[in-house]
């Protein structure tokens, strides 16, 4: 096997070979883009190794900072692209950046959902079970003067915006008929209407208990209603020659303006890799999936752990994070004391460690592709 194993430098984990007898005592967590897929195309070795793990009932889940569509839609696409006809991956095994927000449902009924293409994330939020989903376009429809520079077309407002009589968003400062408070702001995906979203988010954070059109007098680091960002990625890459702004850029803008208004730093929650909260949630879901494989649980009954609560008594002797991005996948995995496997099929390029010695190194090593990395982990632990 052609592997280039680099010496881990500042990683807190060390690869001590374990003699694991049960295939269900080891688990794998895969990043998607650059590990299983390259853009919209499959990485061939990914198909082999996913089938290999599924056949042996070795637990694995997928963990991505991407989002903007339902878990079902993305998993259908992955199964089709990877040609996983025999052992399709279950949607329960997929964690997108916004998936952990489903744990907020019991206490967040009426939510403002920001970001995402078209009006797609409305469907995502409703699929999680949020009772009352408000989108920025609904607010613009209720009162366009709230952000007169909005770029929504009349057709978009007509097709995507819900009527104020349904949303109870009569955002009229003079003659407010029915204007129900919003419980929280959830930034699901990269903003497509950054001006409107910035204004509405800051309005709500500084409102009286989440009622649009009001302004609290108190200046506090605690906002009127909570805000959650699905990830902290500052940049992303597309066909353009320079990286483009992502969710992290919106977050910086929100934090900066909030501090300008309040003189204090905004209290907020950020999900996604490499945050611990994201790995805690993934760990719970991996345990859940193991229970499904052992016949102790049926699919479609995911647990709803409290965010930031780590599982107690994990049944896993070893869990590996497999990723292509040292900054998110590997940093997060190392900080969480999981084994880490870096692959060369995505963001990481040969020579990156020499160029930037500060970036996180994987505990197991750098491998040509996901299949080689996983097989090395299974061999090391006596399972292959
Ligand atoms: Mg990736």
Automatic annotation (TrEMBL):
One of its GO terms (cellular component) is mitochondrion. InterPro entries: CDP-alcohol_PTase-I (IPR050324), HAD-like_sf (IPR036412), HAD-SF_hydro_IIA (IPR006357), HAD-SF_hydro_IIA_CECR5 (IPR006353), HAD_sf (IPR023214). It comes from the Eukaryota. GO terms for biological process: glycerophospholipid biosynthetic process. This is TIGR01456 family HAD hydrolase. It comes from Pichia kluyveri.
């Amino acid at each position: 096997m052609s592997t280039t194993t680099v010496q881990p430098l500042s990683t807190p984990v060390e690869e001590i070979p374990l003699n694991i007898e049960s295939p269900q005592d080891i688990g794998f967590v895969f990043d998607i883009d650059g590990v299983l897929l390259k853009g919209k195309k499959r990485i061939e070795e990914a198909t082999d190794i996913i089938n290999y793990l599924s056949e042996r009932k070795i637990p694995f889940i997928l963990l991505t900072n991407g989002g903007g569509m339902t878990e079902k839609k993305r998993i259908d696409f992955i199964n089709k692209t990877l040609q996983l006809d025999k052992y399709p991956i279950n949607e329960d095994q997929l964690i997108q950046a916004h998936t952990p927000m489903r744990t907020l449902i019991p206490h967040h009924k009426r939510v403002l959902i920001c970001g995402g293409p078209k009006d797609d994330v409305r469907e995502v939020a409703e699929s999680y079970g949020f009772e009352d989903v408000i989108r920025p376009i609904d607010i613009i429809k209720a009162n366009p003067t709230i952000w007169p520079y909005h770029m929504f077309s009349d057709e978009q407002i007509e097709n995507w915006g819900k009527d104020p009589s349904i949303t109870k968003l009569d955002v009229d400062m003079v003659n407010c008929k029915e204007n129900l408070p919003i419980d929280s702001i959830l930034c699901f995906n990269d903003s497509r209407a950054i001006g409107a979203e910035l204004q509405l988010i800051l309005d709500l954070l500084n409102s009286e208990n989440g009622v649009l059109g009001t302004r609290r007098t108190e200046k506090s680091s605690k906002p009127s209603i909570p805000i959650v960002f699905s990830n902290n990625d500052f940049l992303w890459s597309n066909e353009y020659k320079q990286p483009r702004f992502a969710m992290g850029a919106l977050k910086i803008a929100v934090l900066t303006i909030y501090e300008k208004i309040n003189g204090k730093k905004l209290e907020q929650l950020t999900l996604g890799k490499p945050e611990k909260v994201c790995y805690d949630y993934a760990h719970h879901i991996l345990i859940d999936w193991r229970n499904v494989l052992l016949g102790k649980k049926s699919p479609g009954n995911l647990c709803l752990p409290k965010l930031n609560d780590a599982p107690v008594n994990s049944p896993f002797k070893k869990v590996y994070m497999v990723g292509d991005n040292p900054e998110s996948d590997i940093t997060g995995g190392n900080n969480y004391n999981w084994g880490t496997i870096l692959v060369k099929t995505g963001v990481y390029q040969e020579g990156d460690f020499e160029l930037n010695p500060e970036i996180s190194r994987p505990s197991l090593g750098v491998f040509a592709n996901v299949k080689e990395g996983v097989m090395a982990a299974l061999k090391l632990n006596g399972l292959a």
